[in-house]
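As described in the Methods, two query proteins were run sequentially through the folding procedure within a single session, without resetting any intermediate state between them. The first query and its resulting structure tokens are shown here.
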Amino acid sequence: MNAPTVLTGVTGHLGRITLNRPRAINALTTEMVTLMQQALDRWATSGEVRTVLISGAGDRGLCAGGDIRALHADAVSGGSASLDFWAREYRLNAGIARYRKPVVAWMDGLVMGGGIGISAHAGVRLVTERSRLAMPEVGIGFHPDIGGSWLLSHAPGQVGTHLALTGTSVGAADAVHAGLADNFVPADRLAPLAEALTSGDAAEAVAAFAVAPPEGELASCREWIDRCYAADSVAEILDRLRSDPAPAAHAAAKEIAAKSPTALVVTLRSLRTAARLPSLEAALDQEYRLSASMLRSPDFAEGVRAQIIDKDRNPRWHPASLADVDADAVEGYFAHSGDDLGLAARGPR
């Protein structure tokens, strides 16, 4: 028999959710999202469970995101399974954010895309010396979803815009600086921390194991990041980065220039809009509309082909330049349509 894709269990007062696809760095499937939701629903009213811990099997990472190969297959076939996956995933993200008991997310190793969604919305977010967090969606012709627009738009200064448009990964200290994590706990302390969580208060247990993280890089780059990314368009952001004296700004411009022009324009607008939205739920509603539109865009299928399927790292974007991105098409992505989860209308659970 195949091993369960999600392991759940209760020890003492701790409910544990362990993603269990280590060979795929625990990439999320619809089944996994459903199993996680079912466990959280069971424990929400349980007098036994006081704290929930989310972690990943294996030593490569908590979660590499959604199962991109499955999403690609759905996109090229014209299917709708991706819409069901995103609907369930985004509801799970909102549920984790509003959960009435402490949710501790162990963000060890690689945490990307959907992995951010099941961890960065948790009440207690822990990173380790092995943590690498990223929202690299623009590199596959997509946008930061799973509440990514909400998280990144509320990062200090323009740090979130930098992470969204470059897709760069960050370590523990930078994840804390960006507001994606709260505490640094060395990886070898997971077992004793989990034991402490079975009987003790979550905040007190984490405080007993947390230490200062190694030094990061983002804080020292804030001057040029905040100045360059404050521009109103991707084209102007690139101009500012290229003219800045900081070598890191030039490197960022090079990274951005390789991404999907359409995805870059959509992502910048998504972040700017999310910053003015009233709630995470409203941001997730907007992201669902964007995801439904971008699923059918040529750049999503092409980006996944180049990065994941063929791995030639040579995507042929359509259009190929920022100047040729159709403003009306972008406007259509944001238009209200039948593709709406209605999370904001229902409010927090």
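Immediately afterward, the second query was submitted; its sequence and tokens are:
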Amino acid sequence: MLPKKSYQIHIYLYIQQKILQLMQASTGTRVALWGFGGMNKIVLSYLLEKELQVVAVIGHHDVGSDAGTIAGLEAPLGVKITHPENAKEVFAEAHPNVAILATRSFLKDLEGPLRACAESKVNVITIGEEAFYSWNTEPKLTQELDALFRQNSVTFTGTGYQDAYWLYLASALVGVSLTVNRLVCHTQFNVDDYGMALCEAHGVGLTPEEFSAKFTPENSVPAYVWNSNEALAVRLGWKILKTSQVYQPIVATKDIHSKTLGGVLPIGKVTGLKAIVTTTAENQKGKVVEIETHQIGQVYYEDLEDYCQWSTHGTPSLEISCKKPDTVGITCASAVNRIQSVIAARPGYVTVNELGALI
């Protein structure tokens, strides 16, 4: 425990930092983009539409080029793309309030950028799926990053499509029910819309044998809905007992073109996966309840499309279905719309459960 005087100094510095951030935000929020693939190029257009100032762009490709030109904007942005190894220097000059991190899905792959942002006293919003609720899937690293962000009086959170569709949509159904014993979700998205990292995470291009070797129960990384399932359980006030998952390959029955791979996935190759994730929990009355999510991510062909459907089993039993949501657009807009609440939040790792529903 900190001595009383040290604790008071820490609180004083935190209040000073947050006042400065809020003052800066009120006079014009300054945003950095870390990762400049397909997603953050869309985020850039959304930020400009909201008249937010983009002051830094970090990426491995097209270093030194104008970010607006690379994103295909009508006019140059006046901000050059900087290599990640120079991120801290750019942050020291540009003074962003917040960075939107769109690179990889898992917390261990985001650790370097997150540490660099925290040490530069920059708040972070990431669309990396595990960061949505990583307390159980990466507890040690989550604790370390939480402490680092607290120490530097800044905040980081995870958001994206799952913010509204895999968390608040389901909790709204529970909110209009008398009792709920089980929640079931069926959701699908096109991995070809998100780039190589997501395709690799879903086994795209592997043979079924290679898929089985990669996605064993012992070495499988958590499916994206593992983290959203647990976030939902926490949102509902349920005590998580265990979470388990099963991965199933989706195999091409015809030749399918992949824009990400830049070629054809032939018959017999894996085009994605289905993950069935089950979270068993205990509700406020001590009764065992369950959240079961069926997540399909695959390369689309013909008439395949995104969807998200939730059903509850209880009194009454309810169902809600969202056909063809713009999953990419929703993911990017969610990151942009979380900016002000993250700047105003307490320091550390703060999940959107604490930040409240998007408005």
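The CA atoms of residues 72 and 291 lie 42 Å apart. We note this only descriptively and draw no conclusion about the first query from it.
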